[in-house]
Automatic annotation (TrEMBL):
Stretches that traverse the bilayer: none
Superkingdom of origin: Eukaryota
Chain intervals with Basic residues compositional bias: 129-145
Binding-site residues, Zn(2+) 2: 218, 223, 245, 248
Written domain comment of the UniProt record: The PHD-type zinc finger mediates the binding to H3K4me3.
Region (Disordered): 120-193
Protein name as it appears in the record: Inhibitor of growth protein
Lineage, top ranks: Eukaryota, Metazoa, Ecdysozoa, Arthropoda, Hexapoda
Family indicated by similarity: Belongs to the ING family.
Assembly and interaction partners: Component of an histone acetyltransferase complex. Interacts with H3K4me3 and to a lesser extent with H3K4me2.
Amino acid sequence: MTTALYLEHYLDSLEHLPIELQRNFGLMRDLDTRAQGLMKDIDKLADEYLKNIKKDSSEKNEVQLLQIQNLFSKAKEYGDDKVQLAIQTYELVDKHIRRLDSDLARFEAEIQDKALNNNRVAEESGASKKGRKKSLKEKEKRKKGIAGASSEDESKSIRKKQKKGGSVSSTTTGAVGSGAQADASLGHPADVLDMPVDPNEPTYCLCHQVSYGEMIGCDNPDCTIEWFHFSCVGLTTKPKGKWYCPKCTLERKKK
């Protein structure tokens, strides 16, 4: 229930309260007026009784005394009625106060429940987002791990073949594949180099690119580059005998 509904219902219950209070206060005022009139009559009768108590007969004095007692009894009834009206008026107001306190307590409880629900939804949403982020990170790690393992296996394979000597026809997973090899054989390595490559994959050759197409290994065991693309070193077929890269060839000539 919204604040407006609580307030509307409470104001509806207060609609007749002023009329009831006005009626009770009017009755109490009327009883008070009657009681004051009786007290005046009692005062007069008491004065006459005291003045004539010795003159009048005992029978007349008893009648006057009885009349005074009756007036006192009547005044007491008026007082009791006035007290009852006052208690009724107090309970009437107290009932509305208790209802207001109850409505306020329920309204505060609803606000707290709503706040708890909002916090719970926010926590669940945050946990869900964290879970999705963690899942994405784990997927990325797995992809990088697979790519790194593939590159490492390929590098080991190339080094093994290098020890035996000769050229190697290499294809890479992902973006660099059979299409890259075809482009390299046609003498268009630039097309292959423009394709996206896994950053974890090792690079070779003078162009510092990944392995693709036909490649040849330098026969110098101390060569820092090791493997070269045919097109980068001006080869179309595997040469006979030992082959040295341009850098190692210059170093051999200096010696």
